[in-house]
Amino acid sequence: MAITKETVEYVAHLARMELKPKELEKLSRQLQDILDFIDKLKKINIENIAPTSHILPINNVLREDNLKESLPCEKALMNAPSREGNFFAVPKVIE
Amino acid sequence: MELYKLTAHQLLEKLETKETSSEEIVSAVDKRIKEVDSKVKAYVRVDKTNERTQEREGRGTGLLKGIPVSIKDNICTDGYNTECCSKILQGFKPPYDATVIRKLKETGASILPLKTNMDEFAFGSSTENSFFGPTHNPWNLECVPGGSSGGSAAAVAADEAILALGSDTGGSIRQPASFCGVVGLKPTYGRVSRYGLIAFASSLDQIGPIAKDVKDSALLMNVISGYDPMDSTSVDTEVPDYTQSLGMDIKGLRLAIPREYFIEGLDPEVKGILEEAINKLKTLGAEYKEVTLPHTEYAVPVYYIIATAEASSNLARFDGVQYGLRVDKTGSLIDMYKNTREEGFGEEAKRRIILGTFALSHGYYDAYYLRALKVRTLIKQDFDSVFKEFDCIVTPTSPTPAFRIGEKIADPLKMYLSDIYTISANLAGIPAMSIPCGFTKKGLPAGLQILAKPFNEEMLFRVSYAFEQSTQWHKMKPKI
Fold it and tell me: pTM of the entire structure?
């Protein structure tokens, strides 16, 4: 399929990524090449084939709900670019 | 002989007889790093060479007591920078150890505070996508070491490391091991805990050893393998002592040679080396037969849908809120996310995030992502049916020897195709190993890849050790 710059711009917004005009141009071109290559998957008959999302025969891994020590607040916050008290601080969300 | 040239098992013998000490070994490795790393650039944050810490001294008592282990920059080490060689994680000091690091510390291994270089977030096959710049192949400094665990493989090849850990999502341990002439193993999915491995593609990622020989690889696997309640995809099955598989003969073992791995695109010199290696296995008593893995040509496109889809989801966490870089120019939250990610991610990371987001987005999900998951089933079934009749599969690890720095970086598709022989093992979840099996006329190593049934790493050790012990390739050292 044909990839337009608008599609890439839209996807970049979904991925919360700013792209410079030059990057947008280059990426659109490269994505087109990659998708053309990937299109060979359309040759295969996949009717009645179940998808494999991971290869292990395990589902719903549960554990006992026991009280355990968790990461202390100070350690969890030690890499924060900005904090207020025991919270991560971010730019204002609500106008 | 200089201590840094030795393998872990040779050093363990010397430690046992008190011929050397842990301090001497660590100093020898440090000295070697100072001698050659300015050329190889296998490590990042080399200024930490002089740091003497508890981790360095190796306080535990166990299998690897006194042996230094070098760690890829995407495996969390408590208190030591772990940045996935990305600007967006600059300065990140994990508040905990990955399970593999905890196990190494418990066994007395010495953990170096400097980490090995890699493609940013393990996105690449050449280590050129590192924020810190490329690593150079010790066999030819103008060539790439492979990737993404290029730093770990180059460090082991250049004797700047005794043992190293890498991670493998589509070949990131095996391909650099092949390019650098060392032993690299991707364990079965679920064999080694991924807790503390900064996720790239969660259904494909595995941590594994990079070593100078097969025995060292088995020793490191003995330490890092096993069930971990902190990783819900680690599997609760018994871990054998892998060293028990070393020395068993391979008479009568049935090897499969997939025809799709020996066609167009395979470098003729590599092909010749591989044919010789297969003949060697035959003289050791193995039987081989050509087989077909009919969906091989779809592995790369399937991988670049699944891996990028999972990556785009995993990398959503890098948004400037909890760690790493924050770029806040306008005081708006959305702008902060966007600007942080624009400045923090390199070109390949952006490409993969965009591709993965596209494959998962409304209107394209069925056509791309779901279709890829279904073809993944077919690829897995190919392997299942071969393993009904055969003990293992042998192939080249990579279609070419190490390529030159800069040769493929401008063409992402060309770069993706250098993983053509390694990707399938991740999609099928099976264990696979690369061992050195010869050199090209220009002196670059080639790798033999061995693949086995899930949770049958023992078979890989058995075959690779038999091959290694009847050849000299693992003893070759580059001149740097």
Answer: 0.97
The two structure tokens encoding residue B219: 């020793």
- Helices marked H in A1-79 — which ranges? 5-14, 21-38, 73-77
List, by residue number, the catalytic residues of B: 72, 148, 172
Give the residue-averaged pLDDT of B433-450. 98
Q: What is the pLDDT of residue B1?
A: 79
| Architecture (CATH level 2) of domain A5-43 | Orthogonal Bundle (1.10)
Backbone φ, ψ for residue B234 (5° rounding): -85, 145
Distance CA B123, CA B310 (A): 12
The complex scores an ipTM of: 0.95
Model pLDDT for residues B336-385, shown as the tens digit of each residue: 999 999 999 999 999 999 999 999 998 899 999 999 999 999 999 999 99
Q: Is A22 on the interface with B (CB under 8 A)?
A: no
C-alpha distance from residue B345 to each of B73, B121, B132 (Å): 16, 9, 13
Q: Is B387 on the interface with A (CB under 8 A)?
A: no
The answer to whether B211 touches B8, Cβ cutoff 8 Å, is: yes
Task: Give Cβ neighbours of residue B207 (< 8 Å, ≥ 6 apart).
Answer: B75, B98, B100, B165, B166, B167, B168, B187, B192, B193, B194, B197, B224
Q: Measured between CB atoms, which of B233, B305, B331 is closest to A56? A: B233
* pLDDT reported for residue A2: 79
* Residue A30 with chain B: CB contacts under 8 Å: 351, 412-413
Q: Is A82 on the interface with B (CB under 8 A)?
A: yes
Q: Do A91 and B336 touch (CB under 8 A)?
A: yes
pLDDT over threshold 90, residue B445 = yes
pLDDT band at B126 (very low <50, low <70, confident <90, very high): very high
Domain spans of chain A? 5-43
Residue B25: per-residue pLDDT? 93
**Cβ contacts (< 8 Å) between B413 and chain A: which residues?**
30, 33-34, 37
DSSP letter at B460? H
Q: Residue range A83-91: average pLDDT?
A: 96
CATH entry 3.90.1300.10 includes domain B3-253+389-475:
yes
Percent of chain A with pLDDT over 90: 77
Instruction: List, in order, residues 6 or more apart from A49 with CB less than 8 Å away.
Output: B374, B375, B377, B378
Check: CB of residue B175 under 8 Å from CB of residue B446.
Answer: no
Contacts with A, B 334-353, CB within 8 Å: 334-339, 341-342, 345, 347, 350-351, 353
Per CB-CB distance under 8 Å, the chain A contacts of B232 are: 58, 61
